[in-house]
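User: Batch of two.

Assistant: Item 1 of 2:
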Amino acid sequence: MPLNDDQSSDSDSSRLSESTASSSDSEYSRQSFNSDSSSKPSSPASASPPKSITFDELMAAARNLTDLTLAHEIAVNANFCIKDEDLPRNSLAGTVKQIVHKAFWDHLESELNEDPPEYEHAIKLFEEIKEILLSFLTPGANRIQNQICEVLDTDLIRQQAEHNAVDIHGLANYIINTMGKLCAPIRDNDIKQLKATDNIVELLRQIFRVLDLMKVDMANYTIQNLRPYLQRHLVDYERTKFQEILEETPSALDLTTEWIKESIEDELSSVSDESSSSPGADSSSKPIISPTLVLNNGYLKLLQWDYRKTIPETLITDEVRLQELREKLNQLKIIACVCLITNNTVGAAIVDVPDFAEQLKRISLPLLEGMNKKTFDLKEALNAIGVQVCSKVNRSLTERGLPTLNEEMQSNLMGQIAHIVEENNPVSSLIDKRIQFFMRNFLALPSFQKCMPTMPGGLSVIQTEMEFLGSQYASIVNFNKQVYGPFYANILRKLLFPEAPMGKAETETPTN
């Protein structure tokens, strides 16, 4: 992207990357996601008493959260970019915008058609264009900066207007040529179209349209250059930002504390059940609970989280990814249930048929598409899957000269598939436990270990998808532990060892 007519694009890219990676006075230092992440030491939740906060402090915390979320998204999502999305033309807002814009440009055209022409509104547009062009420049682009300021000097243009000597077409042509030097290659066709436009009012309107597109291009170029730096420093940046939020909003760990507390209670209940079923166990001794196990159990809860509820504060940056994981796992669970029910109902006649489970998966996937939407009718989808499965089974049996399913068996098979959605369905509960077991084993693996945990029985048909989702899940969890480990350690110490004296929190999370 050529940003300076004095230097090559390679040197511009290097300079832009440096400017975004520092806290200099470059154009991009005003962006809210600047990288000043090491100015404060990382420290966990403070033990200070609650305090009331002002509206300004609350807004500052909100801005910090926005910065943190944006930086996290840029770093972890390689596809993140700014998109130019206009309002739908048939919407109320789109209609209002269209009417207002038409009124503005019609008024400008009437002013320029007066005798003598009235240039005041046009001059204001040139002033705005000048500011936009200057915003595209990198530090050091002095020659083109001086040229823009000289040619689009609004005081001089006003003096020319008083004597009816404004070369408005000449100014527009200079703007178009300058835009051609500054724009990304993808905008070259837009620049050509501008040069072919004769009507000055339409030309100015189209200039602003292309400038808006160039703003989006510049934002995405900045993001692209910022991403590698954020990826290198994201842990420290997020931890520091969250500490700032916590200092401005002391209650910013309340939901996280409750989340961990529930996980501790679940683990205590599990240990208690095991102790009561073990002969000779000492019921008077206090159970020892692993902090790592508590955290991992908490992370597992997120795979079944009701996302209508607010997620723990330390996981907000990954809420969308975790929700998508849960939805994909629910879809895979149904597919595994369908295959298991079909195998158990039909028996040996199809168990050994090559790729039959894959065929059932291909039948089910399209019918489960969009099952996370509120309008999706899961019962209807399961009924359709049942019909398709019976048809596929009968076709396979016929091809191999075997008797097809009678009406009773078909009704039984379709009924079992339709009942998957019911609460406490035994097949659904079994598959769900095995999925949870697999994900738990994924979290138990050391982060440096690349091998996959053993796939539980009944999940082989979704093995590829499970391993992919498991890797995504473990990546989210391990990074979250790196960032928020000190905060978790402090909460765990207070909940598990309330009698212990409070000291400086660890700087590392409990590890596997």
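Item 2 of 2:
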Amino acid sequence: MALLLEHEFRVLPADREIETGPFLDAVTHLPPFFDCLGTPIVYSPVKADLAGNIKKIRAVYESNPTKFKTLKNILEVEKEMYGPAWPKTGATLALMWLKRGLKFIQVLLQSLSDGERDEENPNLIRVNALKAYEIALKKYHGWMLQKLFSGSVYALPYKSDLLKALEKGKEVNEEETIEKIHQFLAKATPVVDAIYDMYTKMNAELNYKA
């Protein structure tokens, strides 16, 4: 799976501390995932947000790689730096939205690899995309964005076309591609879960609507 496995996540260490540099190297290559879903009016802004948030986090990291060695370091330093404005500011806010985009990708791919589908239309991915949206993004979107997304599922590509897009246009064997998705998720899921847990433990999660 060229798009997903080109730059893999590192295996999550026992202490669940995520090093910022390798994390950014892995996620920088994921925004094009949303090109694979078509419907530019919906997914182009999501892709742009993902890329923009990665850029904001990288700028903070590169200002002092030692000080911001892990994602937890970023939250801890910014909590002290910004005081009452935290966590709705800086790289903390950028990572909060980035993790939601990553969660959308993770849930959609997990749903596909688990074989969840509309039995009457098995080559459609509406069921998978709606599940991912419900879990990762819906509660953070206002009414208009929710309606826009609900309508967009009817313009999603066929599963076969999505898998081909993930392989950058190469003809695919579905079983082999699903196995590559498993390989991606084996490393990505623990990382995404650890970021969510970090936000919960540090009371950094915000529920305002975009």
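The first helix runs from residue 2 to 5.
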